Amino acid sequence: MKKTYKIDVDCANCANKMEQAARQTAGVRDAVVNFMTLKMTVEFEEGQDHKAVMQQVRRNCKRVEDDCEVFL
């Protein structure tokens, strides 16, 4: 399953950090952050609870870029 989320991030480098953090989260098959549209598209692994996984994605993104936001 793929879902798209609105994000708030200050620069393209920060967006890249968020993308890497999301990709490394358990339950995420792939993640793409588009700085120009301020959106994150996440593809979840089969059978994963996307709400729980996104809570972890959000925490991981905050670790690498504390002033970013992922709107769930």
Structure description:
The structure is a single chain. This protein has 72 residues and is an alpha+beta fold. It is built from two helices and four strands, in the order βαββαβ. It has helices spanning 12-23, 50-64, and strands spanning 2-8, 28-34, 39-44, 69-71. A four-stranded antiparallel beta sheet has the order 2-3-1-4. β2 (28-34) and β3 form a beta hairpin. α1 packs across α2. The longest helix has 15 residues, at 50-64. The radius of gyration is 11 Å and the shape is globular.
Give the helices and strands, then pairings.
Blueprint: E1 2-8, H1 12-23, E2 28-34, E3 39-44, H2 50-64, E4 69-71
Antiparallel strand pairs: 1-3, 1-4, 2-3
Helix pairs in contact: 1-2
What is the CA-CA span between the terminal residues? 16 Å
Helix content: 25-40%
- Succession of helices and strands: EHEEHE
Q: Per the principal axes of the C-alpha atoms, what is the gross shape?
A: globular
| Cα Rg | 11 Å
Mean pLDDT: 96
Spans where pLDDT lies below 50 across 5 or more residues? none
Strand order of the largest sheet: 2-3-1-4
Protein traits:
72 residues; alpha+beta; four-stranded antiparallel beta sheet
